[in-house]
Each structure stands twice: as structure tokens, then as C-alpha cells.
Design brief:
The relative contact order is 0.15. This protein has one domain. Helix 2 (14-21) packs across helix 4 (61-89) and helix 3 runs antiparallel to helix 4. The chain is elongated. It has 8 helices and no strands. By secondary structure, the chain is mainly α.
Length: 162
């Protein structure tokens, strides 16, 4: 079975058909998706601004990450679920949408950036946790994260227009 057949089979499922043909299912999923993205981007932005040395100077970076990470993950899971359901409703169309494909690529890069941060400079957070200006690797990770997540939001809005 080739990818086009697989996408068509996904799009032909009863759940996908319901979402596509219902007057309210897709807009409801999209609303939850947008709220989730706002929470993901908002919580990540607070941490990234701390990593840049711009905000939350009175709070340790580790404490800020620990406090916000649960909210970020819950919102991210909600986005994944709603995103997969919306994708299923129009899988063949989304698979050919340049903005969608770019969004998925930028999302992957954001995940890689997070992985590099957590496997690198985050392991030495005790050394710089309370300093006003974090080390350059942390600032690069924070700036990259902000730029990548802004790209995810920007491309997500463009999906409907391409």
C-alpha cells in the first residue's frame, strides 16, 4: 500500500468523515488546538525569555522549568490529539500542503532544539541556574526555541490559506 492509499484510507474512516462533514466538530477541534498552542507557546516563551536573561530574573531557571513543564506537556498532548484528528479529516489535502509540511518540519526542529538543550547545557544547570545572564548555549537554545515556535504558529495559520 503506498502513502496516497494509506492517507485516503485514513481520511475515509468514520471518525475522519464525521469530523469533515460535521458542522461543528472541525471548528471545535481547531479551537482546542489553538488554545493548546497558545499554552504551549506561552509557557515555552516564559522559559525561553528566562534563558535569554530577559525575564524572571528572580526565579531560578530550573524552578521555572519544573513549574511550567507539566502545563506545557498537557497542552502539547492536547495539540497532538486535536492535530491528528484534524489531519485525518483531510489527510490527502494536508499531505500536499506546503505550509503544513513546513510546520511539521519546524516542529521537528523545535523538538531537536529541546533535546540538544536538555542533553547539553541543562545538565549543568546547577552551575548557572541563578545567574542573571545564562551561558551562551542556553541563550542560543532559548532564542532558537522562540523563533522555531513562532514559526510553528505562523505556519499553522498559513495552512488554511494554501
Amino acid at each position: 500500500m503506498d502513502i496516497q492509499s494509506t492517507l485516503q484510507a485514513l481520511q475515509d474512516t468514520s471518525v475522519a468523515t464525521f469530523i469533515r462533514e460535521s458542522g461543528s466538530a472541525f471548528p471545535a477541534l481547531e479551537s482546542v488546538h489553538v488554545i493548546g498552542i497558545a499554552l504551549v507557546f506561552g509557557t515555552i516563551a516564559v522559559v525561553d525569555l528566562r534563558l535569554l536573561g530577559v525575564a524572571s530574573h528572580r526565579r531560578s531557571a530550573l524552578r521555572l522549568i519544573q513549574d511550567l513543564l507539566p502545563f506545557t506537556w498537557v497542552a502539547f498532548v492536547a495539540c497532538v490529539i486535536t492535530g491528528l484528528l484534524m489531519f485525518a479529516a483531510n489527510a490527502t489535502t494536508y499531505a500536499e500542503n506546503t505550509a503544513f509540511l513546513c510546520k511539521m518540519g519546524v516542529l521537528l526542529l523545535a523538538g531537536l532544539n529541546m533535546g540538544v538543550f536538555h542533553l547539553g547545557v541543562f545538565r549543568r544547570i546547577a552551575e548557572w541556574d541563578t545567574t542573571l545572564t545564562p551561558p551562551s548555549q542556553a541563550r542560543v537554545a532559548g532564542f532558537s526555541s522562540l523563533a522555531l515556535w513562532a514559526g510553528v504558529v505562523f505556519l499553522g495559520r498559513w495552512i488554511a490559506f494554501l
